[in-house]
Amino acid sequence: MRRGFFRYIIAAILIAFGLILVLENIGLLEFNSKNAWGYIYPTFFVLYGLKLMIDRMRKIGGSWTWGSFLLIFGTLLLFDRFEIIEFAFRDVVKLWPLLIIYMGFMFIGNSSKPKVIIHRNGSEFRKDENSSYFTVGNHEYNQPNWKVEPMMIKTLAGDFYYDFSKAYIPEKEIPVTISSLAGDVHMLIPENLDFKVTASVKAGDIDIIGNQVDGINRSLSYQTPNYDSAKRKINFTLKLKAGSIRIDYV
């Protein structure tokens, strides 16, 4: 990690600690080592969220989405500490409607970009200037002899169904990348096809040939034994914010 990041963490901790001491001196809270951390880490969330938003405004990285989320989450935790409202760390699940708000802003933010409609194997994609795909809807690849080609797809929401047992697969390594805010990915793979997959979900479950994980911030990687030497093979990268990823043999 960059050196500046560690400096920021130290600065945030010092600021939070100083703020707690000031509040103790004016009688707004009683300081002890047990409740100090309860004020420090929400303050860090607020400060780091502001940093991400400022960096985004300055166009040097950052993120409106994560910045605003951390700002809101940290602020609610601090309101709880000052007994303005009741909000515990586990109540983060109550913030799920923010996902809908962020999706709405994404629609607005992408509405002005030039887009070209591309038809591929009966499915419709929208391509923007960065060669990404922004769509809402379901994607099914289950027609006889459909051709597997390199894909990079980004969706706001939708379900994906791929039946590779019905596909024509060229003798080469084919990358397939799917990224979605919400949805389900289900793939059927013939047992004689070599593949590897890197899958991750922020909230949901993953099942790859019987290997399973579920919960928050889960990831799973899998590679068939003969992948490196295989002539026909597919390299999957699957990322969901919320949903389910499943790959089965057929």
TrEMBL record:
High-level lineage: Bacteria, Bacillati, Bacillota, Bacilli, Bacillales
InterPro entries to which the protein is assigned, alphabetical: Cell_wall_LiaF, LiaF-like_C, LiaF_C, LiaF_TM
Domain LiaF transmembrane as annotated: residue spans: 10-113
Name of the protein this chain belongs to: Lia operon protein LiaF
GO cellular component: membrane
Residues in Cell wall-active antibiotics response LiaF-like C-terminal domain copies: 136-247
Keywords: Membrane, Transmembrane, Transmembrane helix
Coiled coil: none
Sequence intervals crossing the membrane: 5-24, 36-54, 66-89, 95-112
Pfam families named among the record's database cross-references: LiaF-like_C (PF09922), LiaF-TM (PF22570)
